[in-house]
Amino acid sequence: LISKSKKYTCQLIILRPGLIYGPNVKGNFRNLLKLLNLNIPLPFNNCKNRRDLISVFNFSVIINKIISKEKLNYKIYNISDNDNIDFHQLLILIKKNLNKKYNLFFKINSKFLYFLFIIFGQKKTYYSLYNNLKIDTSRLFREIDQTSFFSTNYAIRKTCTDFLKTKNDKY
Known about the structure:
Elements: H1 2-5, E1 13-17, E2 19-21, H2 27-37, E3 50-51, E4 53-55, H3 56-68, E5 75-79, E6 85-86, H4 87-97, H5 110-119, H6 123-130, H7 138-144, H8 152-166
Parallel strand pairs: 1-5, 2-4
Antiparallel strand pairs: 3-6
């Protein structure tokens, strides 16, 4: 892609985001919201991995900053909120914003849990839930002079508010 774009006068910048969330979220994050909204006990108390996510708010800030810069052509950037959050804390934050009890997490033996995910054909889901995802955004932030963002708390609050309004809508 980069080599082909150099033949033309267009600029090419590739953005590689972590999991994207925000109002009208779909996919795995919406499934997570649905699951947490059920308010049933879940085996996430030993989920201490860290995740880098990006809200649609911060994604749009980054895109606007990149558009305003001229010397970022032909580069690939990993992007995130730059807030490597503990997954368990993320779940608690979501539960609070869904107005649900957040003490309904319990511990389960990780090997047994892994076995259950394998049985149900969800090995990839297990790894995405229990492995770390750290994205280094330092080069991008340096190049676009970005120091502050919308906070994770703000973005999760907006995401959950929207979810509660639209949870019965079909996506």
